[in-house]
Input
Amino acid sequence: MRTLTARRGLADPFPPAAALALLAVAAAALEASILCWASIGALAGYALSGSV
Output
């Protein structure tokens, strides 16, 4: 039963979206514009794919 809970946590759309949002903010703070735009694009693609 514990593995079912772990899988559900990994399948939840929040962790990848939160990780991409944090990556975008960190890249913006470091003035890494290419990485910032790449992470924002990945977040948009993830949202548009129907995963969220």
Q: What stands out?
A: Residues 18 and 43 are 9 Å apart (CA to CA). The first helix runs from residue 2 to 11. The radius of gyration is 13 Å.
